[in-house]
Design a protein that fits this description.
Elements lengths: L1 H8 L16 H20 L8 E10 L3 H4 L1 E11 L9 E11 L7 E6 L11 H6 L3 E6 L29 H16 L10 E6 L1 H12 L5 E5 L47 H6 L5 E7 L7 H18 L17 E3 L4 E6 L7 H12 L6
Parallel strand pairs: 4-5, 4-6, 6-7, 7-8, 8-10
Antiparallel strand pairs: 1-2, 2-3, 3-5, 9-10
């Protein structure tokens, strides 16, 4: 049933080169991976400018005594990126980041959390429970990078580099750029586990987390919660959110201009979203769906995980998505065994405490420690 459904949707083959050759080993995959990255940047998310900033984290506020009932060290940081390039007008860019670490854990793993709030206390993150499980959190407010409005790209990071209406980076890629700058800073610290840094986001920020994990291989785990269309869900055969939803209005600025031409032409896309998921291989990926989130379409999110799994399985000889039944699940389910983890819970479009518990369990499974 799963195979038949994927065949019906006629997805482009992730393991076939543009010249028709089959990808059979890691060397060939590196070539195919570069092809996929090029396809996605030109037709979907846009090219990130060739900027190589020098990053510094400046502690603006610190609480080592009372934060979260005294169990955490809290810092409000300014993440400062100095851009030494003649191709940009902006020479530096700074944004705030909340960094919270448990006191009694040596070298905790970190979640880089892309937030809908500028506060360290976000309703979508059970911070104290995360600390109790031994994790640190570095969070940033996505609109501190560039505003989530159709402002003709004249504010924030968008002013750093000239653009064209075709394949310049959209705002999702800009928000993801900030996650990589936090990663730059975290790599300078000795008191965290620098090999176990995850990036996580919900909804449009789930799309952002996927972009960050796909194009920055330093993230060992990428978590997408209810990211839907232009996130984890494949477009071909999808219900709910489709390309036309990103052509005009409140989300027209999220992606490259070239993407808009595929409105009502999803079957002509030179990619589908399993391509984006495949760029994360062989690192860990976790996709979460909500059963009643028809706009995101859990079925298409699940199928995208299935379609990306051959890269893990055939090229890297790792488990992709582990699901032993030949059907698309319609009930709440958790599938944590593979390098692609997945769960679908009851309810609607939301990032819940239950979701975070599954993410932490997955991160702590012995097979996913490395």
């Amino acid at each position: 049933m799963i195979k038949e459904e994927l065949e019906r949707r006629q997805l482009p083959e992730v393991l076939r080169m543009e010249n028709g050759e089959q990808v059979c080993n890691e060397a060939a995959w590196e070539l195919r991976r570069a092809e996929i990255a090029e396809i996605l940047q030109h037709n979907f998310c846009g090219y990130e400018p060739p900027l190589k900033p020098r990053v510094e984290g400046r502690v603006m506020v610190e609480d080592v005594k009372t934060a979260f009932s005294g169990k955490a060290i809290y810092q409000k940081l300014d993440i400062c990126s100095t851009i030494n390039s003649t191709i940009v007008d902006m020479k530096s860019f700074t944004f705030p980041c909340h960094f919270v670490r448990p006191k009694d854990v040596e070298k905790p793993p970190v979640f880089v959390y892309i937030s809908f709030s500028g506060s360290v206390v976000d309703e979508l993150i059970p911070m104290e429970e995360i600390l109790d499980h031994g994790f640190a959190v570095a969070s940033y407010y996505y609109q501190d990078i560039v505003p989530d409005t159709d402002d003709n790209f004249v504010n924030g990071l968008a002013t750093a580099y000239g653009r064209n209406p075709y394949d310049s980076w959209g705002k999702v890629r800009m928000w993801a750029w900030a996650a990589s700058r936090i990663m730059d800073y975290l790599q300078t610290l000795d008191d965290i586990d620098r090999e176990r840094i995850a990036v996580i986001g919900h909804s449009r920020l789930g799309k952002t987390a996927l972009a960050a994990g796909a194009f920055d291989s330093r993230f060992s785990l990428t978590i997408s919660n209810d990211s839907g269309g232009a996130g984890a869900a494949i477009f071909r055969g999808k219900t709910g959110e489709k390309v036309k939803n990103f052509r005009t209005g409140t989300s027209s600025h999220w992606f490259a201009g070239n993407f808009r031409q595929y409105a009502k032409r999803e079957n002509e896309l030179p990619f589908d979203m399993h391509y984006l998921l495949s760029l994360i291989a062989p690192r860990n990926l976790y996709v979460c769906s909500a059963k009643e989130d028809g706009h995101a379409d859990p079925k298409s999110e699940f199928l995208s995980c299935v379609a990306a799994s051959p890269v893990y399985e055939e090229i890297f000889h790792k488990k992709g998505l582990v699901w032993k039944e030949d059907r698309i699940p319609e009930e709440a389910i958790t599938l944590p065994e593979g390098m692609i983890g997945y769960h679908m819970r009851e309810g609607h479009h939301f990032l819940s405490r239950y979701d975070w518990q599954r993410f932490m369990e997955y991160r702590n499974m012995p097979e996913h420690i490395c």
